Amino acid sequence: MPAQLTVAVGARFMLRRNMSIRDRLVNGATGHITELKMKDEKVEYIFVQFGGTTVSVPIRIMAAPFLHRDTVMIREQFPLVIAYGATIHKSQGLTLRNVVVRSRNIFQAGMFYVAVSRVTSLKGLHLAGLHTNKIIFDEDASKEANRLRSTLNPPLSPLQCGVNPKKNMSDYYEAANDSKQAA
User: Fold this and answer.
1) CA dihedral in degrees (34, 38, 44, 46; nearest 10)?
2) How far does the signal peptide extend, from start to end residue (predicted)?
3) Cα angle vertex 46, ends 40, 52, to 5°?
């Protein structure tokens, strides 16, 4: 986390520590600043309204001990970082109304799925350039999904990507175009 935190009312922030699992105040929760409470010309509390709520939660400075060489050190800071954007990995597990996916930065199997599955509706999904060669699936995950599908009653038909594995989605587009031209 940064050494100095610059804040303003209305700014979007992400919580970086679990504060209350029951209240969904967990690492990765996002919201916007509604108020700053000052004491002796220093910020004592930052009030944040997290997504899906109407109540602002006071966030205070927290202590985090860590070991540096053989010395226990204590870092004191607000557990917040600016959050106008987030990586695909950091968004995993979040539910978001709007998502912008730039697929050219995808480098691992399953990342495209994680990115597009965070959004609550297609209206909120925005693709900033679609690079189909970056939509990569994992063959082992596909086999496991098909194994699980076969255990249902009635069993679901296998996913095609597991039956005839391709390296990425551009292979499917090329195969589809080849079959159209042959017809």
Assistant:
1) 10
2) none
3) 165
Written as one string, the DSSP assignment of 70-119 is TEEEEEEE-SEEE-S---HHHHTT--BS-EEE-GGG--STTHHHHHHTTB
Outline where DSSP puts E strands in the chain: 12-15, 30-39, 42-50, 56-60, 62-68, 71-77, 80-82, 99-101, 125-127
Q: Which pLDDT score is estimated for 37?
A: 94
One-letter amino acid at 98 equals N
Beta bridge partners of 99: 125
Can you give the pLDDT at residue 26?
A: 87
Distance CA 179, CA 183 (A): 6
Distance (Å, rounded) from C-alpha 79 to C-alpha 64? Answer: 10
Q: How far apart are CA 121 and CA 116, in angstroms?
A: 10
99-142 per-position pLDDT tens digit: 899 888 888 888 888 899 988 899 999 999 888 888 888 888 88
**β pairing state of 125-127 and 99-101:** parallel
